[in-house]
Amino acid sequence: MTGRPPFAPTDEQRRLVRAMAGYGVPHEDIARVVRCSAPTLRRYFRDELDVAAIEANARVAQTLFQQVSTPGNIAATIFWLKVRAGWREKRPDEAAPPPAATAPPEPFVIVRRIVDARSGDDQAPLMVLPRLRPQKVERSE
After folding, report:
1. Which helix (H) or strand (E) holds 109?
2. Rounded mean pLDDT of 26-50?
3. Residue 64: CB partners within 8 Å, gap ≥ 6?
4. Best CA proximity match to 45, nearest among 60, 33, 57
5. What is the CA angle 4-6-12, rounded to 5?
6. Which residues contact 30 (CB under 8 A, 6 or more apart)?
């Protein structure tokens, strides 16, 4: 019988597939590096492909959680609240009418939680965060 010998994955190939899949490399590209077809990759490396993405997401989530838990990291905190807690910034058409022309703009951004239809929460809590104002730069000539 002639033809190609059956594919036999090595431990090194398994480590490589797991790493590349964790980084989000497409299956076709991983298969090219491992020197097999994409269907063969999925057949022989199914566990590595499935678990790698989960592990990578867990590592990134752990890093983000550490950033959110660090006092003063407002950007990470806002990101977490928007993505995980369902909060969002109000659109201009949802905001209250603008203040009188003589009043300066408010230095705050209002962020609120999206109402979760499953829980029936109709009282969306508001969170007010300070808006960073650009610093004036004085130029000397």
Report:
1. strand 108-113
2. 96
3. 76, 79, 80
4. 33
5. 115
6. 16, 17, 20, 21, 41
The rounded distance, in Å, linking the Cα atoms of 113 and 90 is 10
Q: How many CA atoms lie within 13 A of 62 on its CB side?
A: 6
Say if residues 21 and 49 touch (Cβ distance below 8 Å): yes
Closest CA relative to residue 76, chosen from 29, 17, 129: 129
How many Å apart are CA 89 and CA 131, to the nearest integer? 12
CA 26, chain centre distance (Å):
18
Where would I find the H helices in the chain? 11-22, 27-34, 38-44, 46-68, 74-83
Consecutive H or E run containing 89 = strand 87-89
Cβ atoms of residues 49 and 27 within 8 Å: yes
Give the predicted TM-score (pTM) of the model: 0.53
pLDDT in tens, 83-112: 888 888 877 776 666 556 665 555 555 555
pLDDT in tens, 3-29: 788 889 999 999 999 999 999 999 999
